[in-house]
Design brief:
The structure is a single chain. The chain has helices at 40-49, 73-79, 91-95, 98-117, 198-211, 227-253, 258-269, 279-296, and strands at residues 5-8, 11-15, 20-25, 29-32, 57-61, 84-88, 137-139, 144-148, 151-157, 166-170, 174-178, 183-185, 189-191, 215-218, 223-225. The chain has a single domain (5-238), classed as Ribonuclease Z/Hydroxyacylglutathione hydrolase-like (Metallo-beta-lactamase, Chain A, 4-Layer Sandwich), CATH 3.60.15. 43% of the residues are buried. Helices cover 37% and strands 22% of the residues. The chain is α/β, with parallel strands linked by helices. The protein is globular. The chain contains eight helices and 15 strands. The strands form three sheets. The protein has a seven-stranded mixed β-sheet, covered by helices on one side. The protein has a six-stranded mixed β-sheet with strand order 8-9-10-11-14-15.
Length: 304
């Protein structure tokens, strides 16, 4: 898919295959999803290609506070201070925590280095060591962001992947799900990503199925177009959770340890975008997913 890509008459997919940003046009513009800082300059070039001046952008929407969905925004906010950060009210505390924001910026620096080493970017802005991150407009379930000209974005709580997880819905049947519908890597690999809570992730995917969107806009690997394709995608997201639950339970009942299972899945399932993470970071994430699975079933196990 060549970017920029026109999703609908007023929605354009920008960024890169791995890190998606969506430009929404009303009377003013909003950007939904913030990627990583390493794609900032290519994103600005895409705006110039579309003849969209930064002065026309008002809202920068963060659907959850993981570094790979928000780090183009510090550069934009510093250079264009009139832009307003929009995110969950839960992030008021998150964004004011020096410790948490420090980790977010550190993860972004690691990703920038990985992208450079693989030749995926040539340059990236050098971000200052922020100790806080602004939250100008807080939203929650049912909140509406009005861009004018009849373009309205309604926010929906979809936790599970993260406690602050939001999706954004536009009336034409477009759902911006961020990472709320699991993690997909082309052409056919799905894996669960309920870092926060398994049952909440299942409920969020069920909520998306009830909405029944005709276009699903993800945070990675672009959009799914067509209701039948979206339904299939969401069903496969649900199925991969069921498969992973069964896999973990089988391994545990066979005497496997959390560490052994985590080592196994890290080697076998760290594909696509995940290959940009250091092996120890992938191991940590898979181990967390296993712990969340065991918590769901009320299983306590000692870890080495």
């Amino acid at each position: 898919m060549v970017l920029p890509f026109q999703v609908t008459k007023n929605i354009t997919l920008l960024g890169s295959e791995l890190f998606n940003l969506y430009l929404i046009e009303g009377e003013t513009y909003a950007i939904i999803e913030g990627g990583v800082s390493g794609i900032t300059y290519s994103f600005l070039s895409q705006l110039k290609q579309l003849d969209v001046p930064p002065e026309s952008i008002t809202y920068l929407v963060i659907l959850h506070s993981h570094f790979d969905h928000m780090m183009v925004f510090p550069f934009l906010k510093e250079r264009y201070p009139w832009m307003k950060i929009v995110s969950s009210e839960l992030n008021r505390a998150t964004f004011s925590s020096e410790r948490i924001v420090g980790k977010i910026f550190d993860s972004d620096r690691k990703m920038t280095l990985a992208l450079r080493e693989r030749g995926l970017i040539s340059d990236a802005p050098s971000l200052p060591p922020y100790v806080s991150f602004p939250l100008d407009i807080s939203v929650e379930e049912g909140s509406i962001l009005d861009l004018g000209k009849g373009v309205k974005i309604k926010f929906i709580d979809t936790p599970g992947h993260a406690p602050d997880g939001l999706s954004a819905y536009q009336e034409e049947g477009i759902l911006f799900c961020s990472d709320g519908a699991g993690f997909y890597t082309p052409p056919d690999f799905f894996r669960p990503n309920y870092w926060f809570r398994l049952n909440e992730a299942e409920k969020s995917i069920d909520k998306m199925k009830t909405i029944d969107p005709k276009i699903l806009c993800r945070g990675h690997y672009g959009t799914i177009v067509g209701r039948d394709m979206v339904r299939k995608h969401l069903q496969m997201s649900s199925q991969c959770i069921e498969d992973f639950k069964a896999f973990v339970l089988e391994k545990i009942h066979s005497g496997g340890s959390v560490e052994e299972i985590a080592d196994d899945v890290t080697k076998r399932f760290s594909r696509g975008f995940l290959e940009l993470f250091a092996p120890e970071d992938n191991y940590r994430l898979w181990k967390l997913l296993i712990r969340r699975t065991l918590e769901h079933f009320g299983i306590e196990m000692e870890e080495r």
